[in-house]
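Section 3.1: Structural characterization of target chains.
Under the original work plan, the team committed to producing a structural model for every single-chain target entering the pipeline before any wet-lab resources were allocated. The record below documents one such target. The sequence was received from the expression subgroup and is listed exactly as submitted; it comprises 610 residues.
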Amino acid sequence: MCGRHNSKTYFQPFLEAILSIGPAILIASLLLAMTLYSLTAFANPLTPLDMGREFSKAEPPCPYLMGLLDVSASDEQYREVYDFWDRMVAKKVIGGILKNSRPYSRGEVATALVDLDKKVSSGNITLSRIDQKRLAYLMRIFAFGSDETATVDLPDGQYHDDEYLLITQGESYRFGLSMEAGETIVNRKQSNTTRSEVASKSEANGRSGSSQQTGYVTLLRPTVTGQVKDNFAFYSDLKFYYLSGATFPDIPKTEAKVGQAGLDATTAALAISYAKFKLPWFELLLGKENLSWGPGRHGALLISDNSLPMNMVKLTAWYKQVKFQAFTSILGSGTCLPPCSGRQVGKKYMSGHRLEFNLWDKVSLGLCENVVYANRFETIYTNPFQIYAVTEIPSKIVEGESVSSPDNVLVSGDLDIFPLKNLEFYGELLLDDFYPNYGLRSPFNWGSKWGILLGFYYVNPFSIPDTDLRVEYTFINQYTYTHEPMDTTYTHYDAVIGHHIGADADDLFFDVRHWFTDKLRIAIGYELERHGEGEVNKPHPKDAPRDDEWEFLSGVTESTNSLSLGVFYAVVGRYFANVKYTVSWVKNVSNKLNENNTRHQFILNGSYRF
């Protein structure tokens, strides 16, 4: 049990930590103010024609201010945007949307909202009262600056800069500073029960018992954004965390944690920042960002937001119903290769590209390819149109490497089908490697590394209004994401770049959500997650037979059944509050036979943007 949380002793070291970096913050603020002023001075006004033009399907420009900036899919304050988007696409009230390459830009969101608003105003479609209010508020945030007028009255009758603490703008520019503060309280309780026939009574008693931990995470988050005309934007987001009490490796996700001597606390930070340019044929992003490709909403096989943001150069282009993305990024690696023998990991890179297109209004398709390479930079992989699998094969022949390849190439395809209104079926297939030499047994050979994700999404199930039902199943076989040499294992720092369950695992996920108002919803979930003894840092043994086959959930299988109940209240871009309780029953903890436990987790978190 942890001690009582005393607010005075809790906030005092936090203030001391802030004061210790106060001069740096002051200098940074002055430099920032000078930068904003300089950018303002160089901005030229837009012509009325520029301000009034609409988006075209072939090329989505940004008449809406800040339209170039991305809407973070991992930001709790903006999660409602993606939930609403998925719901409207499944209801088939928004057509021709390429929704499985995330994050979306604010301009993309504004385009869809304006199109939806036109349909509502013309009477072509009817939304529930709650969905109308959700549309109205999102129009207020994202579609300001368009020539269209929302059919639903805005909350205050006009647009307000709810997202920003300070803002300066003219006809051709807009710069804003927002400040967010938040708090997260996590309580975890674990009760161990060991029923091992081989363990002695004293050993069993030693493994039994219960433990409880409580951790506190305070967030201070200044964000600076800006856009000049419709062809340049920047985003700088610093999440500064102060952690006290128990610390958990997964809450929050951070790039660096530093213990504060004498304060019995830890400070941490996570920064996302980029510059974005709109060029005649495509958009170019330089900086640090998260990507998520595929239709899965509980995870994605090839690339997801499971890992930390990556420093990258990213190209995005549209043409009618086709969207193309390509990037090259720098990956983070650990200090040494597991098992840590002292050999340092060299520099690590990843390049990838994705083509997404609508076959017709009921089917969309995505094709992706990523390659991880290390210890040298390959310019050939920076070619957005280069097929990596083809590029890699000749290099292996020339260099005489017939057994293993130096680079780790993964390919995936995803399919989204909308057979009926309110119903969506989707799937993703990942091929990490494939050995075709064993006939019908080829998919079961150890060298055939693959995963599959299947799901469906049902809006207003059984005619229950303002309700969503999602079911998703994922399986990833034993050696997927692993690689020899291990320098090119499919990870960014210690996290798998693909699905969060990792290798040698499967997951069944149910999620039911109901909106009571446009701001308040409840979520009930069930999940079964199972793990074999394999993992991303355990490649196939070098001395094993070449015709060896992978094992389904190998060895002793750890299985976790979880039930969750959550209540979420949010105003997009302004504040949110979330309460979630989860109870989990774990069998064979850490793949140890008959070692079981019950876990309870309570999370209370929220944030407010001033």
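The radius of gyration is 25 Å.
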